[in-house]
From TrEMBL:
InterPro entries linked to this entry: RlpA, RlpA-like_DPBB, RlpA-like_sf, RplA, SPOR-like_dom, SPOR-like_sf
GO terms for MF: lytic endotransglycosylase activity; peptidoglycan binding
Name of the gene encoding the protein in the UniProt record: rlpA
A cellular component annotation (GO) from this entry: cell outer membrane
Full protein name: Endolytic peptidoglycan transglycosylase RlpA
Annotated GO biological process: cell wall organization; peptidoglycan metabolic process
Region (Disordered): 199-256
């Protein structure tokens, strides 16, 4: 009888040890959720400088800005975001210079009116002409993948926990209602014109430099493609000053043709994707032209700026409020 009790005691001890070891193994699996995205804590971080410009993180109650966005994969180089989360290209996330990490914003594409909910979990973009940097997943949902210039509105929001959880889990929140056309027109007027303004003066300088060249030596202008546009103003002056036989044929062929064909065009937009540019051009009866590393959608040509205004109004009626008049020889 005693031996039987002893056997039962030993068996009970062995079961207790097995149960204890099994229980001790359970906390190891609890470490996995720690690597998941979390909305707490929300550190602001210290001020920092990029390219000589200082940025101070802040926690504004309301944030609503208009500017340009970029598509970034910088986080994949380090494998982590500024708040310590793993960088996931497919997640609907973004980088911002000063908003708390994380924050939630609604990003509206001003070209289409489409609006999506995005989780801000990184610092950037590290360039002054961009307001926010979208992950590849966010750019795809917004419909702007591959675009070099993305005009957007960024508005901080406080979404319900269900949508927060979806973005934390690398899912997507439902798209918002499209922004009304009237509001888009107002928002587009607030866009900075840095990107386009920087390119326009360069063309203007290039157009003015060749002007004295034809008076000095005409053979230099002949080999250069596009020089016939640049030299259009000088030949008429030479013809009035001296009745030389050589300048007259040049005046009749090169300068006169662009003037009669139309002195101005209306540029509807510029795209990095040829397919996107051709789709837009086809939808409004325009043409897509390559230049400067971009594909430009243009209407025209028109003989005068006043006539080109009709093209601007036509583009606006099609939803392209940023259409602008340019010289016909602008590249």
């Amino acid at each position: 009888m005693l031996s039987n009790n002893k056997g039962l005691f030993v068996t009970a001890m062995m079961l207790a040890l097995v149960g204890g070891s099994a229980g001790a193994a359970q906390p190891q699996s609890a470490g996995a959720p720690a690597s998941m995205a979390s909305d707490t804590p929300v550190p602001l971080g210290a001020s920092y400088a990029v390219g000589g410009v200082s940025y101070t993180p802040a926690d504004p109650v309301s944030y609503d800005e208009v500017g340009y966005a970029g598509e970034s994969t910088d986080g994949s180089q380090s494998g982590a975001t500024a708040n310590g989360e793993a960088f996931m290209p497919a997640a609907i996330t973004a980088a911002h210079k000063t908003l708390p990490l994380p924050s939630y914003v609604e990003v509206t594409a001003l070209d289409s009116g489409r609006t999506i909910l995005v989780r801000v979990n990184d610092r950037g973009p590290m360039r002054g002409d961009q307001l926010i940097a979208l992950s590849p997943g966010a750019a795809s949902q917004l419909g702007v993948s591959g675009q070099a210039v993305i005009p957007v509105r960024v508005r901080r929001v406080n979404p319900p926990e269900q949508e927060r959880a979806a973005l934390r889990g690398q899912g997507r929140a439902a798209e918002r209602l499209e922004t009304p056309a009237a509001l888009l027109r107002v928002l587009r007027t607030k866009l900075p014109a840095v990107s386009h303004a920087a390119a326009t003066p360069a063309r203007a300088v290039a157009a003015t430099k060749p002007k004295p060249a034809p008076a000095a030596t005409r053979p230099v202008a002949a080999p250069r493609p596009g020089a016939d546009f640049d030299q259009a103003p000088p030949p008429p002056r030479i013809a009035t000053q001296s009745a030389k036989p050589a300048p007259k044929p040049v005046q009749a062929t090169a300068p006169a043709a662009p003037t009669r064909a139309g002195g101005y065009i209306v540029q509807v937009g510029a795209f990095s994707s040829q397919a996107r540019a051709e789709t837009v051009a086809k939808s409004i009866g325009a043409r897509a032209e390559a230049g400067g590393g971009l594909w430009r959608v243009r209407l025209g040509p028109y003989p005068t700026q006043q006539a080109a205004q009709a093209g601007v109004r036509f583009a606006a009626a099609k939803g392209f409020e940023n259409a602008r008049i340019m010289a016909n020889d602008a590249r």
